[in-house]
Amino acid sequence: MKPNLKFITIVLILSLIFSACKKIKGDNENIKDPNQTVSGYMSTVEGSWWLYASRDGVVIKRNATGLDSVKMGFVYNYYETVDTNTQALTPEYFAKNGDKYTMLIDMDGTKTNYIMAIVQKDNANVGDTWKNTKSLTYSGIPVDILIEGEVTGLNQTITINNHTFTNVTEVKNILKAKPSFLPYAKCGEVKMWFSKGVGVIKTDFDLNIMGLYTRKYVDSLIDYNIIP
């Protein structure tokens, strides 16, 4: 029987589409061991604080509480950030797991729907990569989230507001998302800079979610108080 080339072509195209749409399982979903404290990387002691300022006048203060909190079956060091203009308070959760440092990212602003994201690693090399994934429902639509992390710089020296930080690690995160059965679409980039002993010293956001939401801003550490 003569093959139906049109049918074969359609099947091949559909196969390519659905293979491209295949849901990815991230490295964060393979984390099973109990969390450890991040005290070796940033202070967890109550009274430690970090003050961040952005170019649009937003000033955020992160406070260590000295407390732990259980979320999604894991124990995290609990922090709180306060917008010094509005006094809005945001809970934050950091932990170490093996050689990975993780934090919980609030995906929809409800403070209930988090993705556990790997953000940094011990003994990292430039070019090291990892993936963070999460499935959630947004406005009734199932959405798959993908965050591709990569170490893009090591042993950097950065000066911010007369504070010089050494041994700085730079990490780039590519943000992607997709509804079910559609390919992942890039939603932006987030770069983060970490200084061991201090913590996060700078974050650079460049977000563009299908043209519906765009935002570019940078927040930098302008002052801090570390209690060992």
Plain-language structure description:
It is a single chain. The chain has 228 residues and is mainly beta. It has a single domain, classed as Beta Barrel (YmcC-like fold), CATH 2.40.360. 7% of the residues lie in helices and 59% in strands. It is built from one helix and twelve strands, in the order αββββββββββββ. It has one helix at residues 5-20; strands at residues 49-54, 59-71, 74-83, 89-97, 100-106, 114-121, 129-138, 141-160, 163-179, 185-195, 199-209, 213-225. Strands 6-5-4-3-2-1-12-11-10-9-8-7 form a twelve-stranded antiparallel β-sheet, with no helix packed on it. A hairpin with a 7-residue loop joins β5 and β6. It is globular, with a radius of gyration of 20 Å. The N and C termini lie far apart (79 Å).
